[in-house]
Amino acid sequence: CYARARAKLFMTQPNLSKDQLNDVNWIGSRFFLQTPGYYDDGFSGFRSHTPRTKWPYDTTRDAGLPQTTGGGGFPTCTQWWSDSSIGL
């Protein structure tokens, strides 16, 4: 998630404050977690690339991805990072 988010940040070059520039140097960046189009955007690749059994398969979020026999889903980076019971 982080490498893809940093790459997008450098390609789009948004106008960031000094605090935001410092924040994006951390994998758990508030900017990446709270700014639409970064960690929340599973359709742009900001998601788990392998099924995670702790997150059930979601037909909307996981559309186009394989539904495995283990039942795992593909959480977005925001879900993976922020879920209070099973996230990072």
Word description of this protein:
By secondary structure, this protein is an alpha+beta fold. It has one domain. Helices cover 32% and strands 8% of the residues. It is built from four helices and two strands; from the N terminus they run αααββα. A two-stranded antiparallel sheet has the order 1-2. The longest helix has 11 residues. The relative contact order is 0.18. The mean pLDDT is 92. This is TraG N-terminal Proteobacteria domain-containing protein. It comes from Pseudomonas amygdali pv. mori str. 301020.
Topology of this protein?
Blueprint: H1 2-12, H2 18-23, H3 30-34, E1 52-56, E2 72-73, H4 77-82
Antiparallel strand pairs: 1-2
Shape: elongated
With helices defined by DSSP (H or I, 4 residues minimum), what is the helix count? Answer: 4
Low-confidence stretches: none
How much of the sequence is in beta strands?
Answer: 5-15%
Task: Provide mean pLDDT, rounded.
Answer: 92
User: What count of domains describes the coordinates?
Assistant: 1
- For the biggest β-sheet, the strand order reads 1-2
Structural class assignment: alpha+beta
Helix content: 25-40%
Number of strands: 2
Q: H/E order of the elements?
A: HHHEEH
Radius of gyration: 14 Å
Major sheet: 2 strands, antiparallel
Distance between the termini: 13 Å
Sum up the structure in keywords:
88 residues, alpha+beta, two-stranded antiparallel ribbon, 4 helices, 2 strands, 32% helix, elongated
